[in-house]
Design goal:
54% helix, Glutathione S-transferase Yfyf (Class Pi), Chain A, domain 2, globular, 219 residues, alpha+beta, 2 domains, Glutaredoxin, 8 helices, four-stranded mixed beta sheet, single chain
């Protein structure tokens, strides 16, 4: 049995989406971010990223984590690459070159897109999007994202998908990172190939199932 630690309102969303795509039954262990709790160490606090029980699974305390028949893996993008490789099918790499491309795009998403997209999300979450400081942060983040999104747009315009001209785990991983940039009010429509690809990814039943469960969780 594969066990995923993390709530849907976290980077574990990527893993739950992929599990839905694979038709993979996973045991979900809700682990909430400690910063969302008034006192993560309280005796009645839910399992969270500072709980000793979770730190015994992964000393980093980050979510998600995966346990698969005793094998523990962290980092959501790596977990997805592992699950796709293990369970095969068209979502998995067809050969060594596709596997390398999937790793390449996962690293691109994590280093070129996510660090700039997250400040947009935080400004929105903290209700600062209409303050002078928040507006400046969002615009600076948008400006930093235009180059990597331009690269992604050119690739998708030519290929249609991230790898192999078909929907794969690389689309799941990249789409879930690009989703953070959707919080910017005007950015994504500037890149039509990205916009249409992202819309198609998010229209998939497996994504919609994950998203419904995410929305059902408390803020």
């Amino acid at each position: 049995m594969t066990r995923i630690y993390g709530v849907h309102r976290s980077r574990a969303s990527r893993n739950y989406w992929l599990a839905n795509e694979l038709g993979l039954a996973v045991e979900e262990v809700p682990v909430i971010q400690a910063y969302r709790l008034p006192d993560p160490a309280a005796p009645d606090a839910p399992l969270n990223t500072r709980s000793p029980a979770y730190l015994a699974v992964t000393p980093t305390g980050a979510i998600p984590a995966m346990e698969d028949d005793g094998f523990v893996l962290t980092e959501s993008l790596a977990i997805n690459l592992y699950l796709a490789r293990k369970h095969g099918g068209t979502l998995a790499p067809a050969d060594l070159r596709e596997e390398a491309q999937m790793v390449q795009w996962a690293l691109f998403a994590a280093t070129a897109i996510e660090p700039h997209a997250m400040p947009i999300v935080y400004a929105m979450m903290e209700g600062r999007q209409d303050t002078p400081e928040g507006i400046a942060e969002i615009e600076a983040a948008g400006q930093a994202l235009r180059r990597p999104l331009g690269v992604l747009n050119g690739h998708l315009a030519a290929e249609g998908h991230m790898v192999g001209r078909r929907f794969t785990v690389a689309d799941v991983n990249t789409a879930e990172v690009v989703r953070y940039a959707q919080a910017h009010p005007t950015l994504i429509p500037e890149f039509p190939a990205v916009a249409s690809w992202l819309a198609a990814c998010q229209a998939r039943p497996a994504f919609r199932e994950m998203w419904a469960r995410r929305n059902a969780e408390p803020l």
